[in-house]
Amino acid sequence: MLSSITPFGERSRNSRWGLTVAFYLVGNVVGGIAIACAFGAIGLLVDPLIGDTTAIGILAVAGIVGVALELHLFGLRLPSYHRQVNEVWLTAFRGWVYGLGFGFQLGLGIATIVTTAATYLFMLAAVLVGSLTGAAIIGVVFGLARGLCIFAAAHIQTPEQLRTFHLHLNERARIIHRLTIAAVSVVTGAAVVTALA
């Protein structure tokens, strides 16, 4: 997605990058809220059965499993659905339409390839928060976090800049993965400490 919605790409399709990105961000947030509230509704059924300490403990254990999956411990791999957004939309629809559609799918978190355990932890947090308002807030944060990544490609104005961007992205993939593991570890550590307190 980062290589599809760029100022260079939007110009080539006679679309305005700012407008496409605005709808892309809205789609991400709406998708994040939708999936979080769906899981939050499940949480309303579960919440009376478990207390806050148990909920935090569940999140802590899931976080430990998530870190193990990220590190491929014991040969474990992250379960994922291997689907991408339909790039035919780029030429079939106006920028705001595919911006909104792509954003919504990515905001859902599970409609496309899942690359990090953090996605599953977000959904579990939406279940365990115990309220639809809390789940919606989690969804907004998740959707924004996913959507704001588009700004990494905001400088791309030429084919050469696009090639360089891909080269640098590939070079930094390992660092980005380590940062993701660190973030999941910090959240997990906080949940463990809270559960034990």
Total tally of structural domains:
1
Count of strand segments: 0
The rounded Rg comes to 18 Å
Helix fraction by DSSP (H/I, runs of at least 4)? over 70%
Please tell me the overall pLDDT.
91
Discrete helix count: 8
Taken from the alpha-carbon principal axes, the silhouette is globular
Unreliable parts: none
User: Whole-Å distance between the termini?
Assistant: 42 Å
Order of helices and strands: HHHHHHHH
Structural notes for this entry:
- This protein is mostly helical and 197 residues long.
- It has one domain (7-196).
- The protein contains 8 helices and no strands.
- Helix 2 (17-46) runs parallel beside helix 5 (95-108).
- The N and C termini lie far apart (42 Å).
What's the layout of helices and strands?
Elements: H1 7-12, H2 17-46, H3 52-70, H4 89-92, H5 95-108, H6 117-128, H7 132-147, H8 159-196
Helix pairs in contact: 2-5, 2-6, 2-7, 3-6, 3-8, 5-7, 6-7
Summary of the model, kept short:
With 197 residues, this protein is mostly helical. It has helices spanning 7-12, 17-46, 52-70, 89-92, 95-108, 117-128, 132-147, 159-196.
